[in-house]
Amino acid sequence: MSSLLVKATGGDGDLPLHEALSGIAGSISLVSWIVLLLPQLIENYKNGRADALSMAFLTAWFVGDLTNLIGAIWGGLLPTVIAIAVYFCFADCVLLAQTIYYNRLTSHSKEGRGHHHRHNHRRRSSVGAHNDPTQPLLANRRRRSAHHPRDSISVLLTEDRGRYSVAVKNVLSILGVIFAGVAGWCFAWWAGAWKVSNGEGNAPGKDMPLGAEILGYLSALLYLSARIPQIIRNHQKKSCEGLSLLFFLLSLLGNVTYGAGILLHCTEKAYILDNLPWLLGSLGTMMEDIIIFAQFHIYSNAAGVIEDEENHAHTNGHH
């Protein structure tokens, strides 16, 4: 692959370095978008629930992809662009369906637990007068006192290993996406499927029907505003539990490389102005992703402090 890069950007003048870097950035961005939703789908499946996701976030995301698809068809864009837009809508539908399914399961489970709790409460009330509650409570307390310090250390060690494992997986996943993007571009250039654009007529909104252009702007606006409900939900819950950090890392990577691909291709004022809505949309989405990263950090640390305080209180209470 390195030999292909050297050959592509060699001294023959066929492919300027900035064009190669622009193509590579665009390819990495494309791979990021293709695999974007997979981490969250897996996270929901592992947890058996999806209540961490804001339905407003998912809905706005889906409508953004849908308007993007309609605009691509209306504007007569390349078949590959339309095919990718169709894939995005399909992936959105899968995530929406999974979220709705798990939310219904969670709702039914809560109703069942509520009924079971009321039934057990009535049973305990009816037999409570015949039992001495002191003995089992004292026995349980002694058992917890004997095992609690060791259990606390085990839990902390397990959590540290778990965090390290997740961090390694996320880093390897990002590196894998970057490698796939670079390899994909190299193969496309080698096969002749990737051509250098002459800079004319390549702006997203140029020579497009007005309706398709409006849909493109609407799609960018929906992408930009979609994360706001999720940020609010995280703030209200004071937690990001159930969200996949890799999902937002891939989103950030996709937006960074998307913007870089545009800027590396051409920095002329007219070209930048033509692409300004897409650049601003990517920049705004990146800022929102950074806010969510901050929420991951703040709320995970807060949860750790609360857990440490509870463990300390239990330990003091048992001595």
From TrEMBL:
Subcellular location: Membrane
Keywords attached to this entry: Membrane, Transmembrane, Transmembrane helix
Catalysed reaction equations from the record: L-histidine(out) + L-arginine(in) = L-histidine(in) + L-arginine(out)
Any single biological process term in GO: vacuolar transmembrane transport
InterPro entries found in the cross-reference section: LAAT-1, PQ-loop_rpt
Record's GO cellular component terms: lytic vacuole membrane
A molecular-function term among this protein's GO annotations: basic amino acid transmembrane transporter activity
Region annotation Disordered: where it falls in the sequence: 110-146
Superkingdom of origin: Eukaryota
Transmembrane segments: 20-41, 53-75, 81-103, 171-194, 214-232, 244-264
Membrane topology: Multi-pass membrane protein
Family the entry assigns: Belongs to the laat-1 family.
Ranges of Basic residues composition bias in the record: 113-125
The protein's name in its UniProt record: Vacuolar membrane PQ loop repeat protein
Organism: Sphaerosporella brunnea
